[in-house]
Amino acid sequence: MTESTAPQSDHRTVLLRGGDVHSPADPFATAMVVERGHVAWVGSEGAADAFAGGVDEVIDLEGALVTPAFTDAHVHTTSTGLALTGLDLSGARSLPGALGLVRAYVSGRPGDRVLLGHGWDATRWPEQRPPTRAELDAAAGGRPVYLPRIDVHSAVVTTALLDLVPGVTGLAGYHPDAPLTGPAHHAVRSAAHGALSPRQRAEAQRAALRHAASLGIGTVHECAGPDISDEDDFTSLLALAAEQPGPRVHGYWAERISDEKGARRIRELGAIGAAGDLFVDGSLGSHTACLHEPYADAPHTGTAHLDTAEIAAHVTACTEAGLQAGFHAIGDAAVSAVVAGVRAASERLGLGRVRAARHRVEHAEMLTPETIAAFAELGLTASVQPAFDAAWGGDEGMYAQRLGAERARTLNPYAALLRTGVPLAFGSDSPVTPLDPWGTVRAAAFHRTPEHRISVRAGFTAHTRGGWRAVGRDDGGVLVPGAPADYAVWRTAELVVQAPDDRVARWSTDPRSGTPGLPDLTPGTELPVCLRTVVFGQSVYVRPNE
Question: Which residues are in the Amidohydrolase domain (predicted)?
């Protein structure tokens, strides 16, 4: 396990008081003591007086809220940094608008060998199509440009970039005048990212981690792999995170293994699992998620990258080696293949061993009652992204375009997963959707399909403690004595309890329930502002002028 922050050398003891501390140890806590990188005590303002004379520092919270720091369970850190510092097309409202942004960006970067952008989504444009190769060539002035779609499963590129990738026209997924997918896309992405200098890469990684810290994120799960980035990118990120204060980085390397030799290679890279974006299928937006029934707007069922036998072999090898296995699976056929493969591994190794390994599935969007029950049986963690529903759900959204409204309403059933006992870990898949932890909890609590909504408290738990549990640790993501002192301080309005069922909400606000409140996340209300983020007792972000 790679952690980005070591204990403070001076082991300062800090008392925080005069606010609200979100802790199951005391639902009415207003103070907390941190010592040697861990929570030492949580309690009331009156009891805090006993500590005040024996600590190195007292922080007056002035009414602020203290919570566990968030964990983002699915991040592509370098790509996130490049999106923050590079060409962001997510705001483009039309095809001409996107091309205008490309022209302006290219003209302002005369020294870059390859230009990278991110975030276009043609389903939001009146033209309902991506740029042609000729249109992009003209906008780029003949320079190499790589522009992945918002889901990062396809990309439009210029002819000049194709010229840097010998043999690309013979690869599967190559289309002369349409977005590249599959192996052709992976090849051009590798070429584009390979053109980055170590300095550019480090700048992007630092930018991403700084941004995460500014949002109260104390931990990120880096989901890397040979089809997404490269080994140098992965190992350099882990090294950078270990050397400087910032969010913890737990790294997953999505490479299929079959034996102990393969497991040893995963460990040597510094990864905690052969998991993350090990692709069983693609994405709905790019028509590459693997479905049981054809798309509503395309005469096929998407793309399968791994079959049941390959999944079973990977899970078996990982379980025997004491590693987490994990898969990217979005379509219902892909999720079914994962369930069948993990079940086959459990029949060989024993259900207890497989459950204990806490294997995980990324995205897991198209679930059925049967596959949800199988997740619970097999101990699979659902690493999910509620912002996907906020962006693409609803009867008029991209999901409905691809699947029809009826099938689209079944996606991302968080309430059913929780009722069945499936562990949830929330993330962003940044840069697919932005780092935005409170917005992520809001998206789950106010899901576009009402029956899939969960309480703010459950969503908050999935985005804090759920991320720790997803890496096999039960000691973090909660502010109780003995837990790692990873926390965030927030300026926010009155604390409330929000649940989909009004009867639950009414009881939970009764003092007898002992339910600690959280910020009001009703759509339209302002989200909390992060004032400070602390990892292992060390401040990694302090809001300016606070």
Answer: 57-541
